[in-house]
Automatic annotation (TrEMBL):
It is found in: Endomembrane system. It is a multi-pass membrane protein. It comes from Brevibacterium spongiae. The chain crosses the membrane at residues 37-57, 69-90, 97-115, 121-139, 151-173, 193-211, 218-236, 284-306, 327-346, 366-388, 395-412, 432-450, 462-484. This is NCS2 family permease.
Amino acid sequence: MADNDQAVETATPRTGLLDRFFEITHRGSSIKQEIRGGIVAFVAMAYIVVLNPLILGGSEDIAGNSLDFAQLTAVTGLVAGVITILFGVVARLPFGLAAGLGMNSFLAVSVVQEVTWADAMGLVVINGVIIVVLGATGIRTAIFNAVPHALKIAITVGIGLFIAFIGFVNAGFVTRTPAGPPVQLGQDGSIGSLPTLVFVFALVLIGILVARRIPGGILIGIIVATVVAIIIQAFAKLGTVGDPVNPDPLGWNLSAPEFPKQFIAAPDFGLIGEFDLFGGFQHIGVLAATMLVFTLVFTNFFDAMGSMTGLARSAGLQTDDGMFPRIRGAFIVEGLGAVFGGGASASSNTVFVDSAAGIAEGARTGLAACVTGVLFLLSMFFSPLIAVIPMEAGAAALVVVGAMMVTQIREIEMSDFRVSLPVFLTMVTMPLTYSIANGIGVGFISWALIHAMSKRARDVHWLLWVVSAGFVLYFVRGPISAILGA
């Protein structure tokens, strides 16, 4: 009897408040296992603290303004930390959230060519509010079911190709030609600069680490490549390509990697609140701004839905109908990630598939997400150290992440040409036109038309027809604006 009492007393801490709230024992986990999984998930995701400032800070908006790197580093860690902890508490799932690569790339290379950064972040906030409403009302699931599975996967693959192409361009691995083909390899058809060689080295190293399933392989690769870049810069004294006074065509893309004078600094939250909710509608018109919001919503919507479904399946938490515990709460918090991200100019925050690294380490509950979120908050204090990382090292990570996204093409059945052509057009239009919106629009329109003209119109959901019509207007908005202006 005493032994039984002792066993009960020993088990009591494991069934305490923390255990019951996160259902740790119920899901076959332990507090130690959750902490370890949360740490590994952060290590796997931490590259976003580097990449997000590099991507967002490397583009000027239509007014010639750019976002400060140190401020971007601070808000990237802040929003990721807060929203991941909130997700862990509300949804109680082991998923980490941070600035989405597809979204921030879209903002940096497309949206801010038409509006200011403040306008762009205002559109992100609107996108987040819509996502929250869709999640709270249950409409999100209905919309998800309206789009063909093949197109959902094609959009993810297309974004992967788009991200990889951005990485190639940012590293100088792909450049414009003065005449002839639109693009070429390196400088005059060959790799002739040390920074591009750093990119190649980083790409190979990260590829090997990821292939060997080393936890945090992307981050390790970025750090090693940065050390190599610092050594090279110490001897070569290269400039930067975009230096307004003395540009160096064989130099670094964004900034020269040099050893920092300090490693820790107080985070600068100057970007918080720097958004204009309706500025985009005033500057480019209601139609164009509405289509941009739609693109943000769609990208946010399907990227998160796919990631959460896959992660829930890998954690053994998916139910027979394909759903997972507290799905409505998960959708609402994920939408708040866009609201918080836009409000802080950190870009929309969404679920990261890299959380799978933590799940592989045993994470099964929201406690792991809380651990990941706390580590993101601590990353805010290391912006001087992060600023050393060259664009070329970050670009290699972009290519690797793009490759990860492209692997989902295996889920598409390509034997039916009614499917394969819209899928193909969706995937290639994104990188070739440097626009996620164009790829989605071409995919929707071609899917609807091809099915209708081959006597399969009944297979096209009415919502797809509505959205396709909207994209037709979006594609011809220039002539329409000219006619209306005349």
